[in-house]
Structures are given as C-alpha cells and as structure tokens.
Write a structure and sequence with these properties.
The complex is a heterodimer of chains A (317) and B (276).
Chain A lengths: L2 H4 L4 H12 L7 H31 L18 H7 L2 H32 L6 H8 L7 H11 L6 H8 L13 H29 L3 H9 L4 H30 L2 H6 L11 H11 L3 H23 L8
Helix pairs in contact in A: 3-14, 4-14, 5-9, 5-11, 7-9, 9-11, 11-14, 13-14
Chain B lengths: L4 H30 L2 H4 L14 H9 L2 H32 L5 H10 L5 H14 L6 H25 L4 H8 L4 H12 L1 H17 L2 H6 L9 H7 L8 H35 L1
Chain lengths: 317, 276
C-alpha cells in the first residue's frame, strides 16, 4: 500500500493507519523503540559526563580560582598550559606516574597470571582457591590502604619488624618519610589491589583454550614449559592485552590509594597526575590549572590505550 | 591429566602458600582488630591474639558513627544502583536487540566514559552541584557514582541479553505482546540472574568510592559515607589501630559477602565487556 492509495481510504481506516504508525511492533518501526530505550542512558551520560567534560576543558583555558556556574566566562588563555609545561613539578609528576604505571602493571600481570595458572589446575578445593585468589578485588581501596598503612607503620608495623629480622634494616624504617620507600609502599598496595583483576580475566581466558591443543602438543612431545610458551601465552594474548590496558588506565587514574596512604608525599615522590589534579583544585583552589592537568591526564590515557592496542583498540569494548 | 603423588603435594603446597601469602593482609586486619592495645605496641608483633578483644567491635560500633556511615553508604549505593540499572537495562536491551543506526557508536560513546579520570570530572561536577545546592547531600553521590557505573552496567547487560535467545520475545509477540511488554514480561524475568549480578556489581562500585564522597560531602560527620569516615579515624591524636581495623571489618564485610555471591557472574560479566 503506498501513499497515493492512503488518501482514498475512509476515515476509519486512516485512524487505523495512524494507530499502526505508533505501533512499535511493526518491523519498520522497531528501530524507534531501539532509540527510545537507548535515550535515557545517552541523556544521562551526556548530562553527567560529557557536559562536565566540556566544562573542564573550557576551565582549563581560563584563569579561574573557584568557578561559579553562571558567572561570566573568563577570557581565553593558554596560561595554565604554559605554566604547567614550564613547571618542574609537572614533569616530576609525569615521571612518578609513568614509573608507577610500569611497576604496578608489570607486577600485577606477573602475580595475576601466575595465580591464574596455579588455580587453573584441577584439584580438590579449586573453587575455594579461586575465590581466595581474587578476594582482594572485593576489598574496597580505602580498606586496603588502611591495612597497608598499618603494615608499613613506622613504629610498630609488621614490615619494619620483618626487615630487621631479615637483616635488611637495623631499625624500624620510616616508610612514609623516605621518598623511595614511600613509592614502593604505594606500589605494593596497588599491586595487591590490582592483581586479582588480572587473575579473574586470565582465568576466563584460560578456560576458553580448547583442551585439544594441549593433548595434541603432548602427543608431539611438548613439555610443560613449551606448552605454556607456545599454547597458553599466545592464546591468552588478546585477553592479557585488554587487561593490561585496563590495569594501566586504573593506575593512571587511581585516587583513593595514594590520597589516603601518602597524599602524594613525601616531597611529591608519590604524586601522580590524578593526585596533582585533585590537590591543585581542592587543596589550592586553582580550578583552571587543575583542569589543565586533568585534561593532559585524559589525553595521556587515550594515547596510551590507543598505543597499546593499536588498531585493535576496539577489542577493548 | 594424571599427576604423581609428589606433583599433587607440590601443587597443594603451592596453592596454599600462595593463597596464604596473598590473603595475609586480610588476616592481619582481623588479628589487629582483635589485639589488645599492648599487643599492638610491642615487637615482635602478635600473629595470633592470645585473648581476642571482641569488645573492640562493640566499642567502635557504639562510640563512632559507624552505623550512620554504613547507612549513608548503603543509601548512596542503592540510589545509584536504581538510577544506573534503569538506564542501563533499557540501553543494554536496545544494544542487544535492535540494530539501530548509530547504536554501536552510541554504545561506544557511553563506554568512553570509563577512560575519564574521576579527578577531572570531580571539578566540574563540584561546581555544578554547588550551584544547585547538592553539595553535602547524598544525591550528589547518587548522580556522580552513576558516571562510574553506567558504562560498565550497560555493557554487562548487553552481554547478558545477548545470551538470551531472540525466539523468546518473538514467541511472546506472536502471542500478542508488544515489543515493550515482551521485554518486561518475558525477557526481564529470564534475565534475573544477570540483573542481580549487574546490580550487585554496581553496588560494589558505589560502595568503594572515596573521591566523590570526599569532595561532595561537607565537614559534617553525619553525612559521611563509611569509606570517608574511616580515613578520618587515622591519626587524630594517636592512631588506635585496633579500632580502625574493627571499623574496616564492618565496612569490608558487606562487599566481601556480595563478592562471594557474585564471583561466578563477575567473571562472565567482566570478560563479556572485554571480549567484544
């Protein structure tokens, strides 16, 4: 039935047509329902993520202390970025962030993959062991921080005592006032919180490798190490790649652990870009400058994840 | 695969050693909560409390506003779970069932939110909330936590809906259901396990937040969430580590319990999001 015919129809039929027009069950109208169902999520994301993001980028080009919504916009300026790039603190912060990302990601991958391979074996109580290995994932970051702050306490902490016992130190170590020690305390806490995610992902990946591969390899005489090297690792690469990006992004953006543990100190030795963003905004009320740091962090996140995944970056989704 | 006895022993020993090593910090939290003040300030440390001080839990519960903090955390989490689930169930269903033009890009657009540093978003959100008077209110957390949750839950729900055969709602529509009622009456009941897992995961994300709570909740103790509250217990005068540990146990337990329920679905959900 085409449009020219419609005009000749009696009124009742036109009415029926109109109802049919609103009838989302008709295959030709179904994509409308698709849009309607998608709309709340898109509107919410636009209102609470995209709009604030635009404000942030805009703030980074203004010299603002504490912005008020609705106040007239300050003149456009590149001053925040100029000040940022000429500040030694910013470069130190980048260096700290980079070191932390590399150390924590590498260590989490090793521990996470190791534990996943271990509990992927068949044995009694395997389910319990899997639950246990991934348990730190469930501990809120702030709680993990509390635990490690006590373990690394400078007067009665377990770690100081252990170091003396092992002959690595003569007296209790002031973990949080030494720049190198503080960095390692932060890294240790983050690895403990971060490796279970790698375990969970790697386990899922391991379970999707067909048993036949291993049987065939064994027939060909491959030993355990060769099977790991030539079957397990290559099959896991896609999952591990995605996992590595997600862990990297997490370390890049993490706030709670460092904020509570060291607040970026001592002497900014554990200050990452995230902490710098926050402290410039809510410590010194330099919102424009802080937004500039945040925008740079975001750009680095995007560049890093694209670089790590290359053209396959869609695999991340 | 058959192992010899010695290989078996090595495997069990390895598993037990690794688990013990990795879970030691959680054990240490409990030991600390149960230790006496004297035990906390002596070296070598006490690895097994001789006289467990269970009353520390009662003391912390009574003397600190922990019940109130837990209530605030729960309310904020429930609010953000309801808001996020409402939008992400609809969006996930749409992404799974309708090949709408641009639907995939819209989905990716929702996901890019996951790349944003919270410390960048918190700046504009703070000035928006301040201008509408939401600073200090739990509603600010409900909205802000949705920024963390929606990107994940939308894709978790899409992944789950993908596993439900389309024939189900097609049959319902043949029986006279509209597409919307087919979704509500047929698909959502079938998707209950997926809905529960996603909602619990959303709850965990909200419960774990510290950055937004620290920024939006005012100096008034009564409005704090549990995570925010516990950080203020550290080093007011002298840090009472057993009291902090006891409070930390209260805060960690709900999430650990949820985790034990969630673990099976969690793997599916997380990897579904990653392998797309």
């Amino acid at each position: 039935m085409n449009i020219t015919e419609t005009s000749h129809l009696p009124a009742a039929q036109t009415k029926a047509r109109r109802r049919a027009f609103l009838d989302l069950a008709r295959p030709s109208r179904q994509h409308w329902l698709g849009y309607i169902l998608l709309a709340p999520a898109v509107i919410l994301v636009a209102a609470i993520i995209v709009y604030p993001l635009i404000i942030s980028i805009d703030l980074s080009f203004q010299d603002v202390k504490l912005p008020r919504m609705g106040a007239p916009r300050k003149p456009f300026t590149l001053e925040n970025y100029q000040r940022l790039f000429s500040s030694p603190e910013f470069w130190q912060t980048c260096w700290v962030t980079l070191r932390l990302v590399v150390v924590v990601t590498a260590a989490s991958l090793v521990v996470g993959l190791g534990t996943a391979l271990l509990v992927n074996n068949r044995f009694r109580g395997r389910r319990l062991a899997r639950l246990a290995v991934a348990l730190p994932w469930a501990v809120p970051e702030v709680i993990a921080t509390v635990i490690f702050a006590w373990i690394f306490d400078s007067s009665f902490g377990l770690m100081g005592w252990l170091f003396i016992k092992l002959g690595l130190a003569n007296q209790m170590v002031a973990w949080f006032s030494d720049t190198t020690a503080a960095f390692w305390v932060v890294a240790t806490t983050m690895v403990w919180k971060g490796y279970p995610f790698v375990s969970i992902m790697a386990l899922a990946g391991l379970q999707s490798i067909p048993e036949d591969f291993y049987n065939a390899a064994k027939v060909d005489g491959a030993n355990a190490f060769q099977r790991l090297r030539w079957i397990t690792i290559p099959s896991l690469m896609p999952v591990l790649g995605v996992t590595m990006v997600l862990v990297t992004l997490w370390v890049f953006r993490d706030f709670s652990i460092i904020k509570v543990l060291t607040d970026g100190g001592p002497l900014k030795a554990t200050q990452t870009l995230s902490i710098m963003t926050y402290n410039e905004a809510f410590g010194f009320f330099k919102f424009g400058y802080a937004s500039a740091v945040g925008v740079i962090t975001l750009l680095l996140c995007v560049v890093a994840s694209l670089a790590m995944l290359g053209r396959g970056s869609k695999a991340m989704y | 695969m058959n192992r010899t006895t010695s290989q078996n022993i090595a495997l069990y020993a390895g598993v037990i050693a690794v688990c013990a090593f990795l879970l030691f910090p959680i054990y240490w939290l409990f030991v600390t909560a149960l230790a006496t003040s004297a035990e906390l300030t002596q070296l070598p440390p006490t690895f097994w409390p001789e006289s467990p001080q269970w009353e520390t839990f009662a003391k912390v519960w009574a003397e600190r506003p922990i019940p109130l903090w837990l209530l605030n955390s729960t309310l904020a989490a429930l609010g953000s779970v309801i808001l996020s689930m409402f939008v992400s169930v609809l969006a996930g269903y749409s992404l799974s069932r309708f090949s709408v033009r641009g639907g995939h890009s819209l989905g990716l657009f929702i996901l890019t939110a996951k790349m944003l540093p919270a410390t960048l978003l918190v700046i504009p959100l703070f000035s928006i909330f301040r201008s509408v008077g939401l600073v200090g209110s739990l509603w600010s957390l409900v909205i802000a936590h949705s920024t963390l949750i929606v990107p994940f839950t939308t894709w978790m729900m899409k992944g789950y809906f993908d596993t439900i055969p389309r024939e189900l709602e097609q049959a319902a529509m043949v029986d006279g259901c509209s597409p919307l009622s087919a979704m509500v009456r047929v698909i959502l009941p079938v998707a209950t396990p997926g809905l529960a897992a996603t909602a619990l995961y959303a709850f965990v994300l909200s419960w774990a937040d510290y950055a937004y709570a620290r920024t939006f909740l005012t100096n008034e103790q009564g409005s704090w969430t549990a995570n925010l509250g516990i950080t203020t217990m550290k080093g007011e005068y002298v840090t009472d580590w057993n009291e902090i540990a006891a409070a930390a146990v209260f805060i960690a337990i709900p999430i650990i319990v949820i985790y034990l329920f969630l673990e099976r679905y969690l793997v599916g959900g997380l990897t579904a999001g990653a392998e797309k």
